[in-house]
Amino acid sequence: MLARVVENVYWLTRYLERAENTARIIGVNTNLLLDLPGGIAPGWLPLVDISGNRAEFDALFEGKATRGEERDVVNFLIADKKNPGSICSSLHSARDNARTLREILPAEAWELLNEFFSEFTRDLSTGINKRTRFEFLKRIVVALQTIAGMLDGTMNRNEAYIFSTLGRNLERADMTSRIVDVRSAQLLPAETPELRPFETVQWMSVLKSLSGYQMYRLRMRTRVRRTDVLQFLLRDDQFPRSYEFCLMQLERSLNELPRSEGVLEVLAGAARFVEQAPLATLDQPGLHELIDRLQQHVNNVHNMIAEIYFPSHEVTGVQRLATQKQSQRQATLSFGEQQVQSQR
After folding, report:
1. Residue 211 to residue 205: CA distance in whole angstroms
2. pLDDT for residue 334 is more than 60
3. Fewer beta carbons below 10 Å: N end or C end of the chain?
4. What average pLDDT does this structure show over 111-130?
5. Total domain count, the chain
6. Residue 137: inside a domain, yes or no?
7. Residue 342: inside a domain, yes or no?
């Protein structure tokens, strides 16, 4: 199969997963606002930081007195075509990729995506409206899960399918880590005493944003606690949206491809890193640093896949976003090595 074709399949599933999880990230904060008592107003700007598009946001709203208010952030993340990581941009790119793949994709999947894109464009204003936002975001998640399920249930198990699973799981690992980062981004600062009773509510919102609350209770059989939630979302080998489960799926797909030894080695390094992380003792800055490094590992895996399997050409738009997000991050070390160096 042509490298150009499998690259388009890879990016198609990344775009779809990115759009779905961006809706989930917005839902985290929306749910927190609904669950918390009056007078407590978590900020919205951290959502822009989590999405990795702060520079674009600052440039767009430079000099605006109300910069960073809820409506600005929500519009930027959902509807702004100038933001390459917005839901609108991601769906537009996914549709463009799917159009070039109509010969190898199930016709029903293309028709469903095309129909949903038209519905999304028509109802976009309801996503900005505070009263109708929750249902709008829910429809996005359900529609994109339906498309993903249709692809998974009807595609031949060939190279195109392998690269579709690579794109989906790589993006899912990255976005799961970003959703966990909602906590360390201080939407509810832990140092504020009056917010401490609501810490459980906050972590429940994180689990629900990943449709993981019920699965957490079944798997962990304990109340919602910070360390247990981190263990579940980063290390669990059964929950499909956990970071480690995504790495396992990536390994399974890469084992079916030729010339994958280098990528598998990088992937093994990512798995060792998350296993070594001292989740129980991390404070907020430590958790934020951990998430940064988890995302760097994801970016390293992507770069290796692109180097080995995709043709060499200039990338544009959202495709460049995957590497831009991590360009300023430090080289990765094991967590133990970081602590040793910090003590010297």
Report:
1. 10
2. no
3. C
4. 93
5. 1
6. yes
7. no
Burial letters for 25-46: b for 16+ Cβ neighbours within 10 Å, e otherwise?
Answer: bbbbbbbbbeebeeeeebbbbb
Has residue 279 been placed in a domain?
Answer: yes
Judging by beta carbons within 10 Å of its beta carbon (0-12, 13-18, 19+), is residue 217 exposed, middle or buried? middle
Give the pLDDT confidence score for residue 303 in this predicted structure.
95
The pTM assigned to this predicted structure is 0.86
- The span from the CA of 173 to the CA of 244, in Å, is 8
Q: Among 209, 23, 19, 241, which Cα is nearest to 113's?
A: 19
Tokens describing residue 242: 């956990």
| Rounded Cα gap, residues 15 and 92, in angstroms | 9
* Mean pLDDT value of segment 194-217: 82
| Predicted confidence (pLDDT) per residue in 14-42, tens digit | 999 999 999 988 887 777 766 666 556 56
Query: Residue 134 and residue 160: Cα distance in Å, rounded?
Result: 34
Tell me the residue range of the domain where 283 lies: 3-327
b/e map 220-240, b = 16+ CB within 10 Å = eeeebebebbbbbbbbbeebe
User: Which residues make Cβ contacts (< 8 Å) with residue 51, sequence separation at least 6?
Assistant: 22, 25, 77, 85, 178
Residue 333 belongs to a domain: no
